[in-house]
Amino acid sequence: MKAIVNTTVCPLYGKPGRENSLVDEVLYGMTVEILDQPEAGWLRVRTHYRYEGIVPEGDLICDRERVKAWEALPKKQVRHKNFCDVLSQPKVQGWIMKTVPKGGLAAPVGRPENGWQQVVLADGRTGYVPAGILEDLPEDPERRREEELRGALVEAAMSYRGTHYRWGGKSPMGIDCSGLVSMAYMLCGILIYRDADIREGFPIHRIALEDVKPGDLLFFPGHVAMYIGQGRYCHSTARAGADGFTVNSLRPEDPEYRADLAEQITQVGSWF
């Protein structure tokens, strides 16, 4: 059975209970597969990118017909804004019906009018968003030129600049290292493994460090970053003084150089 995420950011835990650490987050409008119910009010789910965790049942829409209707609707995503409020009326004074985060989904209805786009929400209600916020889902990455796609990956990762570190986080409310790179790839239509590792069955493969190019991934013990070019990489780190998204360098002569990372690269991964 499937369900729809019906809250801005749905937490995934390793065990039932909000007092537990996050393992991941799922974003509004995404569909998950329900695996079982470990205890009342909690469901074990598998995401469309094959990550599993336990979520609050109240954060999901579990009605089969509503899920079927939602899956049949064409979707658009929030990509270049951190969040998008869905309003009750096509004007800024409308009340906020739902807030969709970067990477979250909404279903447009008809054509925009007077700068506003009507949308259907996961629960079937309709509301309005500024017409320019929602964007088409990414095209098949195989059809894009390599240089263009590498640039899009870097742009997507850099769009989280200013986001603080959150263990298990995957939104502008807070993001961790693998959340950052996996979301950057997801925004470009590629599903990679959510943790800081190269996992068989996912589309990242090992390459040599000397072959690294923008959009490729650098792996360290328990950590991952995206290479953005000219010896620099972006990542989300809990290190004091950075406390989230930051840019560092592999070059000792650069002020952003971090020897503790540059000297501990375990592997380099690429989709290309």
What is the global morphology?
A: globular
CATH homologous superfamily heading of the largest domain: endopeptidase domain like (from Nostoc punctiforme)
Radius of gyration, in Å, reads: 19 Å
Tell how many strands the DSSP assignment holds.
Answer: 22
Kindly name the structural category: mainly beta
CATH topology of the largest domain: endopeptidase fold (from Nostoc punctiforme)
Order of helices and strands: EEEEEEEHEEEEEEEHEEHEEEEEHE
CATH architecture of the largest domain: Alpha-Beta Complex
Distance between the termini: 34 Å
**Kindly state the mean pLDDT as a whole number?**
97
Brief account:
It is built from four helices and 22 strands.
